[in-house]
Design a protein that fits this description.
Number of helices: 4
Order of helices and strands: HHHEEEEEH
Distance between the termini: 195 Å
Largest sheet: 5 strands, antiparallel
Structural class: alpha+beta
Shape: rod-shaped
Helix content: 55-70%
Strand content: 5-15%
Radius of gyration: 58 Å
Length: 255
């Protein structure tokens, strides 16, 4: 009986020991599995951090490229700004000179118009109203601020050119002549600035301007009537140009 009891007790102790060992083993296995899970989670976190680091590195490299491009662009802009500043300095200098030149040109233009007016007054009295109106228009133009100095110069030079062309052209136009106390309508014949003649509308009387006496002179010689009539036709392009005889004021006899 006693041996049986000891055997049973030994079996119980053995079973208990085996059960305890199995529990210990299961606990260790459970701990191992938990650690493996923790390691997998830690590795996943590390991989995640590594991926984030690679993304940041890639973004950093891209940003460096952008910064390099911006630095090159800024350098190019700076060169352009330097060139523009150089041009601005040149323009400022030109404007300064232009202002000084303009201050000198305007008085010159006024003197030119004065000289032109005096010239017209001393010249043969042809197209008097038209020429005086042109000079009056120039004086008004010079006082207008909305016109540039270049435009004012152009208009003054244009007026001089017109006056210059009168010297080598032939022209016919209508007007009136004051001879002594009589005034009558005539056809004028201007031959450059050599002679200014007239013929009355009836085609009977002719005369010319005496630049020395500053008056109209009647021409009594019949040949002058013929030549003045021919000259009027030439001026009107009714006949081909040909030689005509005109009187010289120094040889005229005042009638």
């Amino acid at each position: 009986m006693r041996r049986s009891g000891l055997l049973i007790l030994g079996l119980c102790l053995t079973y208990a020991t085996h059960a305890y060992s199995q529990e210990q083993t299961e606990a260790l296995v459970e701990q191992g599995l938990q650690r493996l899970e923790q390691n997998r989670e830690a590795q996943a976190e590390v991989d995640k951090e590594n991926e984030a680091a690679r993304v940041l590195e890639k973004q950093y490299i891209e940003q460096l490229k952008i910064v390099d491009g911006l630095n090159m662009y800024n350098a190019m802009l700076q060169r352009q700004l330097n060139d523009q500043q150089t041009e601005i300095d040149k323009l400022d200098f030109s404007i300064s000179n232009a202002t000084q030149i303009e201050r000198q040109i305007m008085p010159l233009l006024v003197r030119m118009v004065d000289a032109l007016e005096n010239f017209v007054r001393l010249d043969f009295p042809f197209l008097t109203q038209e020429r005086e109106e042109r000079i009056h228009g120039l004086r008004i133009l010079l006082e207008k601020s909305e016109f540039s100095t270049s435009e004012k110069c152009r208009r003054v030079f244009e007026a001089y050119q017109i006056e210059n062309e009168y010297g080598y052209t032939i022209e016919s136009y209508k007007g009136r002549v004051q001879l002594e106390e009589q005034q009558f309508a005539v056809d004028f014949l201007r031959i450059g600035r050599i002679a200014l003649l007239y013929r009355d509308l009836a085609g009977e009387k002719v005369g010319m301007w005496d630049p020395v006496a500053k008056q109209w002179l009647a021409l009594t010689e019949r040949q002058f009537l013929r030549h003045v009539t021919k000259g009027l036709k030439i001026a009107r392009e009714e006949i081909s140009p040909e030689l005509i005889t005109i009187p010289l004021y120094s040889t005229l006899e005042v009638r």
